[in-house]
Amino acid sequence: MVDRAGTGPGSGEPAGRHQELGRRTVNVIVEPGAGPPVILISGCGMPSYAWDPVVRLLPERELVRLDRPGLGGTPWPNRLPTLAEETATLTELAEQHPGGVFVAHSMASFHAEATIRRRPDLVAGLVLVDGSVETTPRRPVGEGAWLALARGAERAAQAPPLAALGPIVDRITVTAQSRRRLLDRMDPRSLDTYSRADAVASVIAESAAYRRQAIDLTRVRVTSPWPTGLPVEVLTACRSGGPRSADAQRRLADLLGGHQTVLADSRHLVMLDQPQAIADAVRRVLASIATG
């Protein structure tokens, strides 16, 4: 295993370590505390520091954050990520921190669910934060073209004038998916993160991999049953996808034997809009583990 210095959440906070997990280089940040560990898994193209508001509300817990390839100072592996790769990475991470709670946002819900189905012995609970749901996954289109676009963007972002576009796009994206306003103060780390060519390529590649990963999850569901009795909390951002998304997430909660909480005043980036709701859901799952 390669283990070297990475990037941490910010000045004065624990530094990350670059590790080879699932045959990919990722950045892992561990903050010691009481177990079971809480493993925070970001959505598509999101850095681990996005969880800062939630981390501050769980000061007593052991917290583990993951930056997938391309983020946290790691290299982009020059391909579209597969569900099998994501599952392999999470499996090895959970082997290092067994018996914990996965907290997965958006597209990472695919990764968390598939990992638990394949290795239920490693995880004791799950919180889905406005998780992606595809009841009838659509066929992937133009994957070769998307990969070419990611590679082209990576080359273009190596030029300083074009690299400056990354943080601007990040600001627009955060504004569109949270209650933050366009002129609000931006996290200064995004200037560094999204100016990096690897991060730009990673965001495009992860977005392009969405449809195929959704299809692959349906196949995992057929071959790998969901563990009975695993505590599951599903948080739904009502201002994100509207009633249709809320209903889809309710069906997902039913499928996983979980409990849904609809957040009436949150957009997709729940960790920014309502971090307390995530911390409360984590504590409910931990309480269920303790009494179960």
From TrEMBL:
Keywords (A to Z) from UniProt: Hydrolase
InterPro entries: AB_hydrolase_1 (IPR000073), AB_hydrolase_fold (IPR029058), Carboxylesterase_BioH (IPR050228)
Domain of life where this protein originates: Bacteria
SUPFAM superfamilies associated with the record: alpha/beta-Hydrolases
Single GO term (MF): hydrolase activity
Every AB hydrolase-1 domain range: 38-281
Keyword Hydrolase among record annotations: yes
Chain segments carrying region Disordered: 1-21
Stored PANTHER family: HYDROLASE ALPHA/BETA FOLD FAMILY, PIMELOYL-[ACYL-CARRIER PROTEIN] METHYL ESTER ESTERASE
Protein name: Alpha/beta hydrolase
Organism name: Microlunatus aurantiacus
